[in-house]
Amino acid sequence: MKVLVSGGAGFIGHNTAIFLKHLGYEVLVFDNLERATALALKKLSNHGIPVLKGSILNVKAFDAAIKGVDVVVHAAAYINVEESVKKPALYFKNNILGTANVAKACLDRSVELLIYISSAAVYGEPKTLPISENYPADPISPYGLTKLMGERTVEFYSKKGLKAVTLRLFNVYGPGQSSAYAGVITRFIENISKGLPPIIYGDGEQTRDFIHVEDVAEAIRLAMEKNAANETFNIASGKPTKIKALANLAIELAGLKLKPIYAEPRVGDIKHSLADIAKAQRILGFKPKTSLEEGLKNLIQTMKRKTEET
């Protein structure tokens, strides 16, 4: 089976591409390389995964790239909430128009399955927890809105015959996450590795549902192999973690004596997030394997090795 990962030089994209290659899939990456890291490109090269340079906004380039492809994993997107607030038009163009191009090309090329990588940001600020897939979508940032419009676009083409699965990812973390667009875990560990305290935006009482990127890649594999076309799934751990508890755990695992620094809350950030993953468990057989403590330990050790090498 031949799989193309759009945005495959990004954090989730390159980890997914490598994961699938290890399982024996024929994998190639399509990425404009605008926000790719040298580390991601090196890892893709080391695993013999071809990288096709091109933009999802270029219809002809993407159409040519998916010729002969069985499955497209659409992970290409701008993902920074703060940036989306400042530059909404940039996000509307790339995330919505780009997804429309991807979906239509997949339909025209009779691609067997499109897996659309969406986000928990589509839910906005939930009034009840945990959040199931039928919870009303009400994004509070332009980023969340573009991911929701991407979902609607994929649904539109599904009615035309496209087979697609939407995965709403919660707070993904793991190796290879860019410092420029990193999640809270990566930012905490980068500070701690320098002997600096982690910075918490807000009071630290906010909760997140963290999921390791390898568990995300496994969810993508399951979506490819199960008959779940035209379904939407939450992909998360199903466990809430307070941000201040996360900071203290990272400090403890690093063996340091630090105290977090508190700063003003960031625009577009929600207070609480927790997924109901029962549907993914039931239909896909999805079961997260990497605990938060294990994932943090591995990241801290990796960061420590890098620090010692430099």
Map the helices and strands.
Blueprint (H helix, E strand, L loop, with lengths): L1 E5 L4 H12 L3 E6 L6 H9 L4 E3 L5 H7 L5 E4 L6 H6 L1 H21 L4 E7 L22 H17 L5 E6 L1 E3 L10 H10 L5 E3 L5 E2 L1 E3 H13 L5 E5 L5 E2 H11 L7 E3 L14 H7 L7 H18 L1
Parallel strand pairs: 1-2, 1-4, 2-3, 4-5, 5-6, 6-11, 7-10, 8-13
Antiparallel strand pairs: 9-12
Helix pairs in contact: 1-2, 1-8, 5-6, 7-9, 7-11
Please explain how this structure is put together.
The structure is a single chain. This protein is α/β, with parallel strands linked by helices. The protein folds into two domains: 2-172 and 211-236, Rossmann fold; 184-207 and 239-278 and 290-309, UDP-galactose 4-epimerase, domain 1 (Alpha-Beta Complex). It is 42% helix and 17% strand. The protein contains eleven helices and 13 strands. Strands 3-2-1-4-5-6-11 form a seven-stranded parallel β-sheet, with helices on both faces. A two-stranded parallel ribbon has the order 7-10. Strands 8-13 form a two-stranded parallel sheet. β5, α6 and β6 (164-169) form a beta-alpha-beta unit. α7 packs across α11. The longest helix is centred in the N-terminal third of the chain and has 21 residues, at 88-108. The chain is globular. 46% of the residues are buried. The mean pLDDT is 95.
Q: Structural class from helices and strands?
A: alpha/beta
Task: Quote the CATH topology of the largest domain.
Answer: Rossmann fold
The largest beta-sheet arranges its strands as 3-2-1-4-5-6-11
Count of helical segments?
11
Number of self-contained structural domains: 2
Question: What would the average pLDDT be, to the nearest integer?
Answer: 95
Query: What is the annotated CATH architecture of the largest domain?
Result: 3-Layer(aba) Sandwich
The CATH homologous superfamily of the largest domain is named NAD(P)-binding Rossmann-like Domain
**What's the end-to-end separation, in Å?**
40 Å
CA-based gyration radius: 19 Å
Q: What characteristic shape results from the CA principal axes?
A: globular
